[in-house]
Amino acid sequence: MATQCLECGDKIVGRIDKKFCSDGCRNAYNNKINKDSKNLIRNTNNRLRKNYRILEMLNPSQKTKTSRAKLIEAGFDFNYFTSIYTTKAGTIYYFVYDQGYLPLEGDYYALVRREN
Q1: Terminus-to-terminus CA distance in the chain, angstroms?
Q2: Is residue 70 part of a domain?
Q3: Number of domains in the chain
Q4: Inside any domain, residue 84
Q5: DSSP H helical segments within the chain, as ranges?
Q6: Residue 88, Ramachandran bin (φ over 0: left; ψ between -120 and 50: alpha; else beta)
Q7: The domain containing residue 104 runs over which residues?
Q8: What would the pLDDT profile of 86-111 be if each residue is shown by its tens digit?
Q9: pTM for the full model?
Q10: Are 51 and 97 in contact (CB under 8 A)?
């Protein structure tokens, strides 16, 4: 049974259940299908990486304090973090991997690094 390649339309030779004429067409087809979700994931990961680098730069030791303005000036985006940690006392830390921040009064943040 001769069928056509889903990507380029060429005639497929070989197994009856083949959908593509080559690995290149299969890859091109799947890349097109997954493009939107891959862009979302790539953009989210880039945002997380940038936030991580900013926290790492502003917190070279294990613990420090910084202002919201400094974080924003560096390009930090508060919408992107990997986890939330709530202490027994109810204090909420936001983490980007092992770099965390705790909102304080007066637009200041405590920056911490989680130990393994």
Answers
A1: 59
A2: yes
A3: 1
A4: yes
A5: 23-33, 35-58, 68-73
A6: alpha
A7: 37-113
A8: 999 999 999 999 999 999 999 999 99
A9: 0.71
A10: no
